[in-house]
């Protein structure tokens, strides 16, 4: 799974497994593993956020080099990864959400924030961010 997350090809994973004394990994096995990973990540990204109040929310983004899907050319491009971290009144932290997009534009931030709200995030008293223009303009 780690190899998949880091964009390593099926052939490279197969070569690594064989080098470690294994019999290799078929494409169908890699697909099965990745499907399980996609399911786990999907459940995390869509879980309800109404189990506890998060009066403080940190919002930030970073840019990572990722490989586009084959249908989008399969090229390595720089993409924005936005993250929301909630902090409870007692100081406990939880990653509330993350998403990947082409840039930190207003439309992308607005969709991300709306998804958090739709999943039950409410009662936010303070948002801490770097005041990126896309984020500042997103709440409307």
From TrEMBL:
<comment type="function">
    <text>Required for the transposition of the insertion element.</text>
</comment>
<keyword id="KW-0238">DNA-binding</keyword>
<comment type="similarity">
    <text>Belongs to the transposase mutator family.</text>
</comment>
<keyword id="KW-0815">Transposition</keyword>
<keyword id="KW-0233">DNA recombination</keyword>
<dbReference type="InterPro" id="IPR001207">
    <property type="entry name" value="Transposase_mutator"/>
</dbReference>
<keyword id="KW-0814">Transposable element</keyword>
<protein>
    <recommendedName>
        <fullName>Mutator family transposase</fullName>
    </recommendedName>
</protein>
<dbReference type="Pfam" id="PF00872">
    <property type="entry name" value="Transposase_mut"/>
</dbReference>
């Amino acid at each position: 799974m780690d190899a998949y997350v880091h964009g390593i090809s099926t052939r490279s994973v197969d070569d690594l497994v064989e080098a470690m004394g294994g019999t290799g990994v078929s494409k169908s096995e890699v697909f099965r593993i990745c499907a399980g990973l996609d399911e786990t990540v999907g459940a995390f990204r869509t879980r309800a956020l109404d189990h506890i109040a998060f009066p403080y929310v940190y919002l930030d983004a970073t840019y990572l080099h990722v490989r586009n899907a084959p249908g989008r050319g399969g090229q390595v491009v720089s993409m924005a990864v936005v993250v929301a971290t909630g902090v409870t009144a007692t100081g406990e932290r939880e990653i509330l959400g993350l998403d990947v997009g082409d840039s930190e534009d207003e439309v992308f931030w607005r969709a991300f924030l709306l998804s958090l709200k739709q999943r039950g995030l409410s009662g936010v008293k303070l948002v801490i961010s770097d005041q990126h223009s896309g984020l500042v303009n997103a709440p409307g």
